[in-house]
Amino acid sequence: MSIGHTLLGLLESGPRHGYDLKRAFDGKFGHDRPLHYGQVYSTMARLLKHGLVEVDGIEPGGGPERKRYAITEAGITDVEKWLAQPEKPEPYLQNTLYTKVVLALLTGRSAAGLLDTQRSEHLRLMRELTERKRHGDLADQLVCDHALFHLEADLRWLELTAARLDLLAAEVAE
Amino acid sequence: MSTTDNLMEAVDLHKAYGPTPALDGAEFAIRAGEVVAVMGPSGSGKSTLLHCLAGIVRPDSGSVLYRGRDLTAMSDAERSALRRGEFGFVFQFGQLVPELTCVENVALPLRLNGTRRKEAEARASEWLARLEVGELAGKRPGEISGGQGQRVAVARALVTGPRVIFADEPTGALDSLNGERVMRLLTDAARDTDAAVVLVTHETRVAAYSDREVVVRDGKSRDMERVA
Ligand SMILES: Nc1ncnc2c1ncn2[C@@H]1O[C@H](COP(=O)(O)OP(=O)(O)O)[C@@H](O)[C@H]1O
Ligand SMILES: [Mg+2]
């Protein structure tokens, strides 16, 4: 994720202090990974240098978290461009699971057993995310759903592969 | 796992329809209040396992113990009394009685157990409200959506206060959002009433509402807890 664009986007609704930016970021997007103050200040320093933000005021007491930042016209254009640019879909072609299935077949081990173990492991994480959805707000639910659908996709692929093991076994034996 | 912990336990189940075995040495165990997902490819024997556990189908061999009593040794009358008294059912397509209103559908299991109409419908209304479909009480199944129908079916499964709920692909005919809501309501209600749930599903996002999973393949089951 581009932290710079995200912080810029958060500034569009009005100027904020460094600590306030960090809090807003963590609350909306941080989830398991809150920002370090160091990341906020190095990012803001870069945005300042490129003229995408400006210092709007400084609270007494010193320290970088007391600087108040405002977005510039150039900054708004930058956010606009970032949002309009589609994300590159993950190619998902480097796949350890596929490698393991093929190796299991090549070495005469149980590919179905590998699938069951993997499903179990995926399900463990999916249960955690599902439990978190029970207690979380809508934002939390959307983030967990994103992860859940990806984990589900892995498993669907594994099931499909398991259903074609005989064909695959014949092919890898060649 | 010792027998005493288990509310229900099946050992070495075999069942064949004609020459091909549907169950070929399947095992299963569930504790009180536990939600167990039964997963596996289509045709692997999941529904047959559920039917044997619930006493709907008698296995060719093997035993199904419920609170220490063997279902396979019971008479048909004993088994259906057990089903009515202790079990609840949710299937893929609600299987509501089309001629009855929603509240009458939910009250039906209580009526069959001899509860008076007024009392049965009062309790049915409470369960409809809890499943967030209280306003549908007077409607017939043909007048409501699939998602609403499944909530009515869940209310009907829970109204007698069953110890075990058997759910066979309960979200199979629903979109993601409705499916999730039904699973949430079903598992919350089961938790609150300490009912066990046998949840047959091939969808992992649905199985994620369970406490653990059992995988069925070619009529054999694998308890992933014991493997781990
Ligand atoms: N009533 C039945 N008559 C004949 N064959 C059946 C019947 N029920 C199930 N089977 C067969 O038994 C096997 C297991 O079916 P089922 O338990 O429905 O699997 P699942 O629920 O996992 O899809 C399948 O091969 C199916 O065709
Ligand atoms: Mg089935």
TrEMBL record, chain A:
GO terms for molecular function: DNA binding. InterPro entries: Tscrpt_reg_PadR_N, WH-like_DNA-bd_sf, WH_DNA-bd_sf. SUPFAM superfamilies: Winged helix' DNA-binding domain (SSF46785). Residues 7-77 form the Transcription regulator PadR N-terminal domain. Pfam families: PadR. The keyword Mitochondrion does not apply. Keywords: DNA-binding. This is DNA-binding transcriptional regulator, PadR family. It comes from Actinacidiphila glaucinigra.
UniProtKB/TrEMBL annotation, chain B:
GO terms for molecular function: ATP binding; ATP hydrolysis activity; transmembrane transporter activity. The keyword ATP-binding applies. The keyword Transport applies. Signal peptide: none annotated. GO terms for cellular component: plasma membrane. InterPro entries: AAA+_ATPase, ABC_transporter-like_ATP-bd, ABC_transpr_LolD-like, MacB-like_ATP-bd, P-loop_NTPase. Keywords: ATP-binding, Nucleotide-binding, Transport. Residues 8-227 form the ABC transporter domain. This is Putative ABC transport system ATP-binding protein. It comes from Actinacidiphila glaucinigra.
